[in-house]
Amino acid sequence: MRENFTELELCEKIVSMLKARGYCPEFDTEDLWVTCLVNGIKFAAHTPEDTLFGYSCEFHFGRKLSDEDKESIVKVFDEQEPVIFENLHFSEDGVLITTILPTEFFDEEFIEEVISSFHQKNALLEH
Predict the structure, then answer these.
(1) What tens digit of pLDDT does each residue of 67-79 get?
(2) Longest distance between any two alpha carbons in the chain, whole Å
(3) How many CB atoms lie within 10 A of CB 19?
């Protein structure tokens, strides 16, 4: 049976899982934002509004992305399995990948999949 978490409990669970992997997340308990540098990638989890919960990863490459770079990133993004991130956004020198879902969608197993995705080989976050 799926255990539904409140927004606060989701943030606390993410903080706990990140700490267990040796990371140092920052947790804003007032605005319910978690941020953490994971393998050089800025990870964030937050509650954009009641009953919704979102997470994102932000990459900065330190140079302007070429069309070929973007095409390669889109290809890897489209082929990701399982689908952990739903939206892909480009800036001049970086990429933001995001997902926002109803809070009830999240359980401990799904949160573990999101955090584990930071360490997958030949996957989106490695590129």
Answers:
(1) 999 999 999 888 8
(2) 46
(3) 12
Q: Are 120 and 21 contacting, i.e. CB atoms less than 8 angstroms apart?
A: no
Sheet holding 26-28, edge to edge: 26-28, 33-38, 41-46, 52-60, 94-102, 87-90
Residue keyed to tokens 């197993």: 109
Asked if 86 and 57 touch (Cβ cutoff 8 Å), the reply is no
pTM, rounded to two decimals = 0.84
Give residues with Cβ within 8 angstroms of 111, minimum separation 6.
Answer: 10, 13, 14, 17
Compute the mean pLDDT over every residue in the chain, rounded to the nearest whole number.
87
Give the pLDDT confidence of 2-12 residue by residue, as tens digits: 567 888 999 99
